[in-house]
Amino acid sequence: MIRAALTFRSVELRRAALALSLALVPRAAAAQAYIPVKGEGTVSASYQAVFTRWQMNSTGQRLFPDNTDTHALISQIEYGLADRLAVHASLPFMAVRYAGGPNPHTLGVNGQPSTIDDGTYHGSFQDFYFGVRFGAIQTPRFALAPFAEGILPSHHYESLGQSVVGRDLRALVVGAAVGGFVEKALPGLFFQTRVSYAFVQQAVEIRPNRTGIDSAVGYFVNPRFAVQFVQTFVHTHNGVDFNGTPDTFTATVSNGAPFTFEHYLNHDRLIRSRVVTLGGGMTYALTDSVGVYATATTMAWGADIQRPAVALTAGVNWGFRTPGSGTPKPNLKVLP
Asked: What whole-number distance in Å separates Cα of residue 262 and Cα of residue 52?
């Protein structure tokens, strides 16, 4: 009985650390493969710093040397309504400044004069995120969880400028996360991938819908400590493209419509960004209910995006249990 309890706890610690393995960008941790059991939940808080250098054109070449510095505080709560059903909600606070370049924006999205790119930090809450996950498969070695998430701006913040906090657009995100352990290949080896598609609010007759893939492959050095390689991919399907060089610069619309002043006023909301980022990180379970994580990533390739030279994330998760919560029953036959 003692060995069974210890083995079960080891698996639970590893599952908890795996649940942190995609905490590399705001919101990635909201769609993990493993679901908390009924009556259990997690409160998390993370800090992220992102420094962008250069605006990239539609072919991935450097266009303008515009730079931004972004700092974000992301709080999130998740709770298991049933053994296979969990809900979550979060609200990031962002502080962004235009760190220099040739293209400060002097107009707002409504055409009014704007001083948002004055070189100082501008802070604001960004978007509410709320969603649900369903544990279609939940075993100690493999998990599959479809999810749906709504994005709702917390208020109508400015969305035209180098230093805006977001796009001020509603969205519905659907997808699935898979993850687990590959003990037969290498004891302690784990993986996780989340695939999503966002249906985004229309602006100027364009819906900048996007596909996202976030992945992690890692290794447990011991039951509490893991290291991992992380990757993100985002492809925006429709929107505004930046073309050419500074001397031959043009902006075009992916649907073939002429680029108008209205498109200009909304180009930061509609920019057709595509990006691949790579990096690494670690997770550590301080106790059975508290874990910490940190990651560092950089852009491997990107188009129509301000190049994220480096993104640093650090956070902490606290697991809690309400009275009457369920306790998972380990299947000792499949434990390592």
From this structure: 26
3-state class (DSSP) for residue 331: coil
| Residue whose pair of structure tokens reads 């009457």 in the numeric block | 324
For the chain, domain boundaries: 2-318
Query: What CATH class is the domain 2-318?
Result: mainly beta
Q: Which residues have C-beta within 8 Å of that of residue 332, sequence separation ≥ 6? A: 4, 7
Q: Could you report the per-residue pLDDT of 219-240, keeping only the tens digit for each?
A: 999 988 999 999 999 999 999 9
pLDDT tens digits along 43-77: 999 999 999 999 999 999 999 999 999 999 999 99
CA-closest candidate to residue 228, choices 9, 19, 13: 19
Q: Is the pLDDT of residue 178 over 70?
A: yes
Q: How far apart are CA 278 and CA 275, in angstroms?
A: 10
pTM of the entire predicted model: 0.89
Environment class of 40 (CB within 10 Å of its CB; exposed 0-12, middle 13-18, buried 19+): buried
